[in-house]
Design goal:
The protein has nine helices and 39 strands. By secondary structure, the chain is an alpha/beta fold. The protein has two domains: about 220 residues, Spore Coat Polysaccharide Biosynthesis Protein SpsA, Chain A; about 190 residues, 3 Solenoid (UDP N-Acetylglucosamine Acyltransferase, domain 1), CATH 2.160.10.10.
């Protein structure tokens, strides 16, 4: 059985925020979400989340994905682990980590569990050229870890050690709960330190080993806004590097934002100031031009999207969008379409090989294939209380400056003449004209200018 205890009870005062520290976002996802998602991906059986300060914020976000344990008051890391009583009596190993360490990788988590098989405790360590004031790892001649010495308590020889404690452990669950009671708070802070468990295990001659993390950034703790920025930049660089290795071109990877779960096909080009956020999937050979945001949307192949916002929508293949278009709320744009500048689609479908070139609003509409919209078309879908549907069938032509007052159906190959306000159905092949007759007044132009 694989279990995990995530420590997330602290106040995080250095963040200078009314928000719970672990709820601050790294690339669009709360830090605690990164940790729990990665635990889920390696099939951890049970996760106990130790909460305290603003516990409800974490509970509202994670809901029933984890088991909650309350630490109140907060009396150290050892005291926090003591609250995870839901795991007492369980077999297997338990990974202990922090909610404010959002960068730890799936690979490192897996390796921790693998490394601890048949052992009592594995400490995740790091080797630093300048270990500063981190706790030092003290080993015996065989490489077994004897203890963790805090910098303030270390002697001159111990301070020369470059291997430091990251605070992340994988431990035999049975031995963990057997010896938690051996922790004491006999220190200035009157707190129970989880690091003391290492020395307790060593004195019992249990097998205590260290595993050196490959990239120190993985165990970065986020304590303030500067750390939050560093974590976001590091993770973004990791994501963008992976995508480039998979065949995606970045014009400037330092100015392109892509969330961790985004999928992008080869030969797609991303320009600067592009934001592609959670839930989005892009196919091959797309060109995403500057100042475009794509969220939770599916984009096919061979599309060009310029300075536009695509939210919760689908674009098929060989479509041009923008500049300054907005697709939202379940919109579907089928293949070989043209969505031009200052066009908005909401909860609508646009069929194959249609055109909507400029200054048009299409809301709650089902539009067929080979339909042409002139400039300034509006589907009037809302009466102040209810939304109504517009249906435009294949081959229809909607002239410029047309209002279609829903509910309304425009039939196949029908024409709605420019300037028309249509409030009744137009049958197949009909032309609808609904505008006042033009009247020209001789000489009135000159009189007007003389006023």
């Amino acid at each position: 059985m694989k279990s995990a205890i995530v420590l997330a009870a602290g106040k995080g005062t250095r963040m200078k925020s009314s928000k719970n520290k672990v709820m601050h976002e790294v690339l669009g996802k709360p830090m605690i979400g990164h940790v729990v998602d990665r635990l889920s991906s390696i099939d951890v059986d049970e996760v106990v989340m130790v909460v305290g300060h603003q516990a409800s914020a974490i509970q509202d976000y994670l809901k029933d994905r984890v088991i909650y344990a309350m630490q109140e008051p907060q009396q150290g890391t050892g005291h926090a682990v003591m609250q995870a009583t839901a795991l007492e009596g369980k077999s297997g190993d338990t990974l202990i980590l922090y909610g404010d360490c959002p960068l730890i990788s799936v690979e490192t988590m897996k390796t921790m569990f693998e490394h601890n098989q048949g052992k009592a405790l594995t400490v995740l360590t790091a080797v630093l050229e300048d270990p500063a004031q981190y706790g030092r790892i003290v080993r015996d001649e065989q490489g077994n870890i004897l203890k963790i010495v805090e910098y303030k308590d270390a002697n001159d020889e111990e301070r020369k050690i470059k291997e430091i404690n990251t605070g992340i452990y994988c431990v035999s669950n049975e031995l963990l709960f057997k010896h938690l009671a051996d922790l004491t708070n006999d220190n200035v802070q009157k707190e129970y330190y989880l690091t003391d468990l290492v020395e307790i295990f060593a004195k019992h001659r249990y097998d205590v080993q260290g595993l050196v993390v490959e990239d120190i950034n993985e165990v970065m703790g986020v304590n303030d806004r500067f750390d939050l920025l560093k974590a976001s930049n590091w993770l973004q660089n990791k994501i963008n590097t992976r995508l480039m290795q998979e065949g995606v071109t970045f014009i400037d990877p330092t100015a392109t934002y892509v969330d961790e779960d985004v999928v992008i096909g080869e030969d797609t080009i991303l320009y600067p100031n592009v934001y592609i956020t959670s839930g989005s999937v892009l196919g091959k050979r797309n060109e995403i031009l500057p100042n475009t945001m794509i969220h939770n949307s599916q984009i096919g192949d061979d599309n060009v999207i310029d300075s536009s916002r695509i939210m919760d929508s689908r674009i098929d293949n060989d479509v041009t969008v923008g500049p300054f278009a907005h697709l939202r709320n379940g919109t579907v744009i089928e293949s070989k379409n043209r969505i031009g500048n200052f066009v908005e689609f909401k909860n609508s479908r646009l069929g194959f090989d249609s055109r909507c070139a400029h200054l048009t609003y299409v809301g709650d509409a089902d539009v067929g294939s080979k339909v042409n919209f002139g400039c300034g078309v509006v589907t009037v879908n809302y009466d102040g209380k209810n939304k109504f549907k517009t249906i435009i069938k294949d081959g229809a032509f909607i002239g410029s400056n047309v209002n279609l007052i829903a509910p309304i159906t425009v039939g196949e190959n029908a024409v709605v003449a420019a300037g028309t306000t249509a409030n009744k159905d137009v049958l197949d092949g009909e032309m609808a004209i609904g505008r006042s007759r033009q009247e020209n007044k001789t000489g009135y132009g000159l009189k007007y200018k003389k006023k």
